[in-house]
Amino acid sequence: MQSQEPAPVYTQYPTELPPTFPIGVHRTAPLVNVTELQAHLRLLGAISKLKSDVQTRGVSARSKDTAWVVFVNRAVFRFFEWVNALWIPSEPGLDETRVPPLDVLMVWHTYLLNPRTYFEDSQRMESVYANNLRKLAEMPLTLIASLIDGQTLDPLPPSTERQQFFERMTKLSWYMPLSTESTETLCVYCPFCKNANPNVRWVTDHDTGYAQTKFTHLCQSCYKDFNKVALGMRRFVDEVSLRRSGSVVFFSETLLDPPTGKVDEAAARKFIAKAFKALDGQYKALSVLQGPNAEEEAAKLGRVLNWDFEILCDRLHEGLRPNSLPDRSKRNPRLQRLAVAYSNPGLASLDLVGAVLRQGSFISKMDELGWTRPGRFDLVSESAPLVRSIARYHAFLDLMIAHNSTFCVPTLDIDLAWHTHQLKSVHYRASTTQLVGRFPNHDDNIGPNILSTAYDLTAKAWKRRFGVPYSICGCVPDGEPESRISKFAFKISSGFKKRDDSHGSPANNTRPDLVSTEEDEADSSHPSEHTIKFVNPSDATMAKVRADRQHRVDKCVASARKGAARDPWRGLQAERSKREGHKEAFTDSHSYAAYYPYWGVSAAIPLGYASFLGLVYVTG
């Protein structure tokens, strides 16, 4: 299906946004603007500076990466304390005195970039936390940017009122230490007996601290060892208890309609009743509780499930498939995502520590592009890359409509605009639902092989729809053999008509709003890889996936070089693939391996509610 409107005509790279963009059958005013992208980049620069400070001055840690992982753990803890405090105003939004410290902003920023999870967590039950999330659905980027020094990227000293407000509401210091000593502790409530353990260490010499991979602690009341999975499962059994007592509670991954992301309470109730059928039949998990035994009943359910989200997933499958034995290799993706949502401590339905660490990969890419450098886009004459980023984001949404069964993967510049839009959560949900017909999620825990194949398909669709390459950074030239694509569960070519392959040339760029031939802008169209989940970088299967892709890339480059006269765009891509410092996307472990020793393998979270074979990730 071709775009219904003729392509705009430009004589040079645009430095101002047009009044409207086409998305499907609609025309819309720009969903984000240059000022918002500039403010977002300043925040990213400040987070990058914070990370650098932690890694260079966090001398107590055994390595730079360890120091950062510990710091992020503490930041996530502080974020939960901030959101769960009784301070949110009656009206949404923050003024200057309510803006928290940078470490807390960093976690909030990452949470918002998982839009369906954030939205569902704010809607699925009544609690202080959920209510506050609803009031914190819009990140005030320009206000936050004004609180960051434009030259040093350090946070400006807070006003007395701002600092005192945060400290009064959270009972925490405004300033978090960059390094963590082994004597520093936090209070954690035992998942088994719910008694306080006020002396849980953040770090220990044996990596068993709360901010470390092997966390375990002996409860001072019941004398049982507990870990983070048990803490996550405590949240699950507490929600079961609330539901049994008559409160309205929808479990994670149940409230939103999978295709659209809209709230559907009736469908959620049916799904819960079916999935929980086995648990309810055996342990009365959904039955109204008679008498004052809620705590004991919750603990009993936890013991039945061995405080393990994997066993929870098995029991839920018994509800859907009562006559078959659990086969963990063939789990229902939605049920698996439900169970994994309760595998982490805290109040969010995702591992916020892992999410912040993965987001760091994207921030590093913005640094490498030079886009977070102070003053980079201060002059209007230098704003063309940001204008193009916004234009390409709107085209990306248009592509989603044209290929609504395709798992579309963004490039770095598109991802910046996409992230910026997601930080305006209410507007993002409303505008995408109206324009695209659904509320697209931004899954950030995807297997490398899935992401790389989906990227190739996105690039192919883009070139056919808009007539110019998706990326000119030097990664796999477009035009992979159709036979490879046919191995997957869908055919990307079904959504559009065959068009003439004469797409012009770099010397005659017909769409400077969508692609730049400037050498110094090449890397902005590199595939965005920060969504790759943490896996063991030495895993033999993953090593083979990377090697196979590199082999195919080499063949594509050779073919493109031979056909450069016939397709100059592919020739340019092949030429740039050999640039010094260029890294072919998805062919090494640099995007996801750095924190593996310090945070471990990501929990297995299927791609949305769909299969692994390519359906667009439109779900939380």
TrEMBL record:
Q: Does the keyword Membrane apply?
A: yes
Chain segments carrying region Disordered? 496-532
Question: According to the UniProt entry, which residue ranges have a biased composition of type Basic and acidic residues?
Answer: 523-532
Q: Recite the UniProt keywords alphabetically.
A: Membrane, Transmembrane, Transmembrane helix
A Pfam family recorded for this sequence = GRDP-like
Which InterPro entries does the entry link to? GRDP-like (IPR009836)
This protein's source sits in the domain of life called: Eukaryota
What are the transmembrane regions?
596-618
The record's annotation in PANTHER family points to:
ENOLASE (DUF1399), GLYCINE-RICH DOMAIN-CONTAINING PROTEIN 1
What protein name does the entry list?
A: Uncharacterized protein
Provide the species name.
Serendipita indica (strain DSM 11827)
